[in-house]
Amino acid sequence: MEASAGTELAKHTLQIFGIIIVTGMACGLLARRLRIPDVALLLIAGMLLGPAAAGLIHVPAGSALNQLILIFGASYILFDGGASLKLSVLKQTWITITVISTLGVLITGGITAIAAHHLLTMPWPLALLLGAVVASTDPATLVPVFRQIAIRERVAQTVMSESAFNDAMGAIVTFAILAVVTGHGEFSVWAALRDLAWQSAIGILAGVVLGYLAAAGIAHARFNFLVEYAPVVSLVAVIGAYLAADNFQASGFMAVFVFGVVLGNKEMFGFKMEEQEAEQLDNFILTTAFVMRVFIFVLLGAQVEFGLMREYGLAAFGVVLIFMLVARPLTVFACALPDRRAKWTFKEMLFMCWTRETGVIPGALAGMLIGLNIPGANIIASVTFVAILMTILIQATTTGWLAKKLDLLA
Q1: Alpha helix segments (H runs only) across 182-274
Q2: Which of 37, 119, 159, 255 shows the smallest number of beta carbons within 10 Å?
Q3: pTM for this prediction
Q4: Quick one: 375 exposed, middle or buried, by C-beta within 10 A (0-12, 13-18, 19+)?
Q5: Tens digits of per-residue pLDDT, 146-163?
Q6: Spatial distance between the Cα atoms of 268 and 209, rounded to a whole number of angstroms
Q7: What percent of the chain has pLDDT over 70?
Q8: What is the C-alpha separation between 213 and 200, in angstroms, rounded?
Q9: Which residues pair with residue 409 across a beta bridge?
Q10: How confident is the model at residue 54 (pLDDT cuts 50, 70, 90)?
Q11: 101, 162 Cβ separation under 8 angstroms
């Protein structure tokens, strides 16, 4: 009796999952021995196992399976990052976080666009679209890095918060420029600001409401009827926060991040879990976040387009160098230096200049442009993949070394 097509597809998917999980464990053990963030090794492993090399893993970027893994994986990693933040620390740095997540995206995107216009001879609308795509940082990369390397609290939490909040700004700018490029609209500063305010407000509201309800259900002194199901509550609430915000055309990623912040600071709302139950929840979150990280970065590596990178490699390399060594430092100093409340030191700002990995969100935006058949989207995808590879393989792996040199280890 022959198996149905659905059964064969299920077996093939299960085989891919098994390969990814085994690869993730091996990379995790090796990364711990080498004392480097595991995301770099996961990315390299994905490239080696992907269609361009061994051919053991092939999950198209536009497939429903890949999108499911990206959305839920990035959401859960963001929730994990938010849960590790402390509101007492964020109170000191909220001005920098706000400015660098909004104005900072425009500065980074603008400088990158200038580089792309001159080095890749791209027309200005397309160059600006490239700048917008790569301008936002990647929480799925940064959160795991800071989970593995103990950086001074306010620096690590500022960078992680930026990576969560600038996602909305990067998407808004990308879609606004895309409307101009395709001739379906005109760019309006006020419309963009209204959109940003709406996405931020609804995302924060959804995260706060679900975070409070989840905290009450698992840690209320009298009504903690869900305490035995705390891990399940975290899963359901992450999905609920993302979908609730997304259904109102707001930032789902911002919602899950804020949900994590509220749940991670539940003591400030009068909620407290027993030590054993809190430890079980923490272990579950860490394990689940690791599994999501493995899937995201192995698949991201497997989807790297080597042909596109060879075609535009040298010019793309130059654009990304300017992106890393000029755009990011100017952005950090312009946004953090005026914040007299935070009183950033030169060493702290220098560290933030180097810590801005590119990953899941820019990769997804580049894939979307290719799917829409935007003229020049292949060039944008090429530069985006070069940025992903360079920032993760160079910056993520040297984060601990630089923090030690700058005396910023916790």
Answers
A1: 189-219, 230-247, 252-264
A2: 119
A3: 0.79
A4: exposed
A5: 877 888 888 988 988 888
A6: 15
A7: 96
A8: 20
A9: 151
A10: confident
A11: yes
